[in-house]
DNA sequence: TAGCTTTATCGTAATATTGCAATATAAGAA
DNA sequence: TTCTTATATTGCAATATTACGATAAAGCTA
């Protein structure tokens, strides 16, 4: 066991959970916040800013990329990771909808 | 080594990540959605609706309660779990802020 | 009291996540 | 070509998460 039973939930529920999982680590929050403040972003930069080892940063970037929040473009030997605006707004909307559709109830 | 280095991140970053972690499971999304649709909520109800075993539901409810999103009130032998409106709006704001403070950048 | 119902906790197994050292890859500089 | 720099991948250890059967606790009902 220990494996999430995704099949018993809706696509929307799984998608939102998947997105939340990417945000469920302070390093990835920090990475996204940092990238959003830059004009461009070099990964090596992140190692210093975040304070985790280079392979660890690389893995976190990959998690973020997997749900489409980052676009990476090689600029020579350097890499420019940037936020995908469309996907960003898509997730923003998904979280907004989730938080909005809650009724005032008992207690 | 498998343990998140929370101390190198800000309180805000850790808090948001912690909240996201609770939403990072479709069962907990489903539980919150279901509770929000009810006037009251009995846990036994959730076992049927969600489709996970009773101890598993109980554990998920506990995770949600830990970040203050649920208030539980015993009504005799039954339990009424309800969403804490204040905390809900607090997290809604936190996610809203996070998603809003992203600059348009390169690529 | 004894039995029933509801929820919590314990124990355990399977799997996932986090982190990093070592190493690989790839592209520019000398 | 060799050296350097930047990023990715591999392998592994430590820890966390997910799930559930068994059982406990607590409050009804008869």
From TrEMBL, chains A, B:
The keyword Transcription regulation applies. It comes from the Bacteria. Residues 8-103 form the HTH arsR-type domain. Keywords: DNA-binding, Transcription, Transcription regulation. InterPro entries: ArsR-like_HTH, HTH_ArsR_DNA-bd_dom, HTH_MetalResp_TranReg, WH-like_DNA-bd_sf, WH_DNA-bd_sf. GO terms for molecular function: DNA binding; DNA-binding transcription factor activity. This is ArsR family transcriptional regulator. CDD domains: HTH_ARSR (cd00090). The lineage of its organism: Bacteria, Pseudomonadati, Bacteroidota, Flavobacteriia, Flavobacteriales. SMART domains: HTH_ARSR.
